[in-house]
Amino acid sequence: MTSAIEIRGVSKRFRLYHEKYTSLKERVIHAGHVPYEEFWALKDVNAEIPSGKTIGILGRNGSGKSTLLKCLAGILQPTSGDVVVRGQLAAMLELGAGFQPELSGRDNVYLNASLLGFTKKDIDRRFDEIVAFAELEKFIDNQVKYYSSGMYVRLGFAVAVNVDPDILLVDEVLAVGDERFQRKCMDRVQQFQHDGKTIVVVSHSPDMMRQTCDDVMVIDRGELITYAPPGEAIRAFRDRLVDSGFALPTDVGETVTDGVSSSIFTVKNRTVQIEEIAFEYPEKKDRPYIVTGEPLEVRVEVNVKEKVAGASFNLSVLDETGGMLFTSDAGTSRSGLLLEQGKKIISFDFSEVPLLDGRFLVNVDIRDSGGVVLDLSEQSAYFEVMNPGRATGIVAMPLAVRVSDADGSQLLESVQ
Amino acid sequence: MLTSEKLTSAQSGGELPARVVSAKTTLGSRLLNIWQARELLLFLIRKELKVKYKGSALGFLWSMLNPAIVLGVYYVVFKYFLKSSIPDFALFLFSGLIVWNFFASALQGCASSVVGAAGIVKKVAFPREVLPLAQVGTALFFFCLQSLVLILFLAGFQFAPAWSYLPLVLFGLIDLIILAAGVGIFLSALNVSLRDIEHLIQVLLQAWFWGVPIIYSYNTVYDLFLRHPSIKWLSAVYLADPVTSIVLSFQRALYGHVSYTTLTPVAKLVSGHLKYVNTRVTTIVLATYPYHFLVELLVIVLFVAIGVFIGAVKYFGNVEGNFAEEL
C-alpha cells in the first residue's frame, strides 16, 4: 500500500516571547534583548499514513496535535524535517475560513475552493452539488454577511468535502449545524472512507477515535508516543494522561501509610498490614494491561502482626475519577478465619473482566469480625484494560444483533 | 511552503503527485507554486475589486475620484498659484501621475495584505505570495481605468503622443509591475514582524513622490544638482531611482514635448538704450535623452526589478513559515 502522507523527522520550534515587539519603534527601543523561550511543539515525529485509511491524531490540549495537522496541511513549515503529501489535500481547520462577508455565496464558493487549491474547472463541475449539499439554493446569490452562522458553516463544510480531495484533514470541526446536518456530514465522511480516501482526524476525544479511525497516533509533549490500532493507542493515551498531572498515585507497592487520614475509616491498631497488591492475568509478561473479557486475579500480600479472629476481605473497583463500579459482598469473603501471624496471600479471582477500556482503581480492606478496619489500601493500585473493539463506554455487555423477517427467516446476525 | 509538484509516480507506484512541506524550498518551486495559483490570484483580485466598491451606487467611479482630485488640486496649485510654465500642464501631470498612482497604491495595498488576511493565512495553505500579488493586480486594474481616462484626455485635447516612443510605455509598465510586485512582496512579509511598516511606507511614499519628476520638470532638479559641485553626485542618485526612469519614459511617450519655445520680452541694449525685445526662449521640460538611452534605462530597471522580485520571494520564503504563528 502506498502512503498518502509521509512524515519524516518533523520538528517544530515555537518561540514564546514574553513580550512581543511587533513594531519597528519598539524594536529600536528594545534593541538587542527580546526575551523569548524556545518551545518544541513537535520533536522528531516520523510516521507514514497509508492511503485509504482513516488516521486519528490524539493528544491533550497543547500536546502538539494541531501543530502536526497544520504541518501536514502546509500551513506551518516544520523547523526541520519534511512532510510528503501525495494527492490533493483539503484541510478543514476552520469552516468557511476566508469567506468574505461582502461577497455572495457563489463568489465565496469559488474563492474558498480555489484557496483550497482547486481549479475553476473542478469548481464549475461541482458547484451545484456544493450548493445542494449546503441546502442554500435560494440564498447562494445573497451576500454571505446576511447568512446565519449555521448557513455559513454549512457552506464552508460543503465546499471542503465536495471538491473531492484525495486526503481530508479534519480538526474537530464536525460538530456543525443542526443534528440533521451533522448526520449528513458524518455520512459524507463515511462515504469518503468507503471511497478509499485518506482521512486524518485530530481530536482529544478517544471515543470518536475508536469509532472512526483505523489507527491512531498519540502525541504528547510534541512526541509521537504510539501509532497503533485505536484500543491500544487510547490505552497509551490514558497512560500519559495519568502520568502528566492527573493526580492519581501510580505506585502500586505503596499502601496506606499516609493515605489513612483522608479515608473515612481510621485504622486504629494496625495489626495487619497490606504490603503489596499485584495483578495477575494470562499475558502479563507481554503487556502491561488486560484485554476486555480476560480473567484477572488480584493478589494481596498482607503481613499479620497479631492474630486476627474472623477476618474479612473486601475489594472495590473504581473508575479513574473515583466513581464506584463494584464492591464485593462483605458476606462472601467473611471467612471467620483465624489469621495467624506471618505473611499471607489473599487472591481475588475474577473469571472475566467485563470492562471496556481505561484505568481502573482497586481498593482493598481487611476487617475483623466486628467490622473494624484493620488496614486498607485506597486507590493506590490500578489495572488497565484495553478494548480492542469499537464499543465505547465502561461495561462490556456481550451483544448479538439479529434481524428477521416476520415469518422468522433470519436476515442478519451479528455478534459483538 | 507548498513545494514542488513533482510527479513521483514512477518510484512510488502511486499515481498521485507528491508535494513536500519543508522549511527548505527552492526559488524555482516557489515561483512554480505562484504560477500554479494564478487562478486563485484572479479570484482574489476579483474579490478585492468587488469588496472595495460593493454597495456604492457609483461603483468604480469612486475609484477615479481620488486620482481626479489629486490631479485637479496639483493642477490648480502648480499652474495658477506657483505659475508652472510647463505647457499643457494637466497632461504632463497626468502622464507621470498614473505611474505613481499605480506604484503607490500597489505598495500600500501590499504592505498590509498578509496581516490583513490573517484569518486565512492561519487556516488555509496556499502560496501566500498571491496576497501581495493580488494587490498589485488590483492596482493594475485601476491603472488601466486611469489610462482609459488619459486616452480620452488626449483625444479631447487633440493632443498627439510621441508615437515612436509608445513602446516605452509598454516596456515601462512591465518594469513597473515587476518592481511593484517585488517591493510589495517584501513589504508584506516585513509587515508581519514589524507592524508599523504599513504606516511607515505611507510616509516614505510621500517623500518619494517629490523625488520623482511628476509635478516639476526633470531638468530643473537634475541641472540644480549638476550646478553645485558639492552635490553633483546627487544627480546620479536622482536618475538611479527606477521609478524616475519609468516616469520619464511615460512622459516622453505620452506628453511628448521635450522643450517649448516662447517669445519672451527680454531686456536688451539696443543702440545705447535698454529695451524689451521679444526673444525666442527655449525651455526644456523633459529629459533630452534619446530613445535608445531611455531603452537602456528601462533595461537596467528591468534587471533591478527582477533582482528585487527574486530577493523578495526568497525573503518571503524564509519568513513565511512563521506567518501562521506570528499573526
Would you list the SSEs of chain B in sequence order as H and E?
HEHHHHHHHHHHHHEEHH
The 3D shape of chain B can be described as: elongated
CATH class of the largest domain in chain A: Alpha Beta
Total tally of structural domains of chain A: 2
User: What portion of residues of chain A belong to β-strands?
Assistant: 35-45%
Q: What is the subunit organization of this protein?
A: heterodimer
What is the CATH H-level superfamily of the largest domain in chain A?
A: P-loop containing nucleotide triphosphate hydrolases
Approximately what portion of the residues of chain B adopt beta-strand conformation? 5-15%
- Count, helices of chain A: 8
Q: What is the helix/strand order of chain A?
A: EHEEHEEHHHEHEHEEHEEEEEEEEEEE
Written description of the protein model:
- With 416 residues, chain A is α/β, with parallel strands linked by helices.
- Helix content of chain A is 22%, strand content 36%.
- In chain A, the strands form 5 sheets. In chain A, strands 5-6-7-3-8-9 form a 6-stranded mixed β-sheet, with helices on both faces. In chain A, strands 11, 13, 14, 15, 17 and 18 form a 6-stranded mixed β-sheet that branches. In chain A, strands 2-1-4 form a 3-stranded antiparallel β-sheet, covered by helices on one side.
- The two termini of chain A are 29 Å apart.
- Chain B has 2 domains: 1-36, no CATH class; 38-326, no CATH class.
- Helices cover 67% and strands 9% of the residues of chain B.
- Chain B has 15 helices and 3 strands.
- Chain B has a two-stranded antiparallel ribbon.
- In chain B, a hairpin with a 2-residue loop joins β2 and β3.
- In chain B, α5 packs antiparallel against α8 and α9 (167-193) packs antiparallel against α13.
- Chain B is elongated and about 90 Å long.
- The two termini of chain B are 16 Å apart.
- Mean pLDDT of chain B is 85; it is low at 1-14.
- The interface between A and B is large, with 47 and 45 residues.
